């Protein structure tokens, strides 16, 4: 099966969804991955399509004009005090735009609370035909493959899935062969990037690299091929934020190079 690629929000973080759609189409992507759930992070732009009706209309027009498809939306974040129902407007917008998946991650240390809220989010997303795909993040509370599998097995939601980000997978110290123990139907898509093989000793440096300085595939030391070889063929969402390269190249050329280097790497490294 021919590989398909999505342009992830963090890769072109300051591009609003309509602009991002046109950009992704010109750069040769098959999908886009939006963040219509506003996180309220410092300096973050608000792309809440449920509230911004004009931006939603422009996004819908851009997708129709380009034929671009929406792979997933983010981020249904689970934290102490979260109200899962607050994500419903984003689910509705995502469904109207044809999305398939919702990305989620857990940032509470209360295991039972995190699992209960994850299950609730899955139930809320189900009527919209969306899966909820759990991503483990080494700076969050669910930090590795074992923790994510624990959540999924305990929540027992038919529309839940596991989303592996190869950066986080490497930083968590997981082994590619462990992916063979994951149910095949849990995999819906994958985040691709590269990074230095050395794992930062501080949370601050790990955070800086994952948000600002990831590498093109093949330019770091992560065993991306080892991960890809052990999961089914799914769409690859390129999440590769790099402030220096985007300032140098501009978003469109950077996105194009992200895609080309990913294709070159996969054609060169991954078994067929």
TrEMBL record:
Residues 23-247 form the Xylose isomerase-like TIM barrel domain. One of its GO terms (molecular function) is isomerase activity. Pfam families: AP_endonuc_2. The keyword Isomerase applies. InterPro entries: IolE/XylAMocC-like, Xyl_isomerase-like_sf, Xyl_isomerase-like_TIM-brl. Keywords: Isomerase. The keyword Isomerase applies. This is Sugar phosphate isomerase/epimerase. It comes from Salibacterium salarium.
């Amino acid at each position: 099966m021919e590989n398909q690629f999505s342009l992830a929000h963090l890769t072109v973080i300051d591009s609003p969804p309509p602009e991002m759609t046109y950009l992704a189409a010109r750069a040769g992507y098959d999908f886009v991955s939006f963040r219509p759930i506003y996180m309220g992070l410092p300096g973050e732009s608000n792309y809440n399509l449920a509230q911004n009706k004009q931006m939603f209309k422009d996004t819908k027009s851009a997708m129709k004009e380009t034929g671009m498809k929406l792979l997933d939306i983010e981020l249904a974040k689970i934290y102490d005090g979260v109200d899962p129902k607050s994500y419903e407007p984003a689910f509705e917008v995502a469904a109207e735009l044809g999305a398939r998946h919702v990305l989620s991650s857990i940032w509470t240390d209360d295991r039972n609370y995190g699992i209960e809220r994850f299950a609730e989010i899955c139930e809320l997303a189900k009527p919209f035909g969306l899966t909820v795909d759990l991503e483990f993040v080494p700076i969050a509370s669910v930090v590795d493959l074992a923790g994510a599998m624990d959540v999924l097995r305990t929540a027992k939601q038919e529309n839940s899935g596991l989303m592996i980000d190869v950066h986080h997978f490497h930083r968590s110290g997981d082994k590619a062969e462990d992916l063979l123990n994951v149910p095949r139907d849990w995999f819906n898509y994958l985040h691709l990037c590269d990074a230095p093989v050395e794992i930062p000793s501080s949370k601050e440096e790990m955070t800086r690299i994952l948000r600002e300085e990831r590498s093109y595939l093949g330019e770091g030391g992560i065993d991306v091929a080892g991960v890809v070889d052990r999961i089914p063929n799914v769409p690859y969402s390129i999440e590769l934020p790099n402030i220096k390269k985007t300032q140098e190249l501009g978003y469109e050329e950077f996105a194009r190079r992200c895609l080309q280097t990913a294709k070159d790497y996969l054609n060169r490294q991954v078994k067929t």
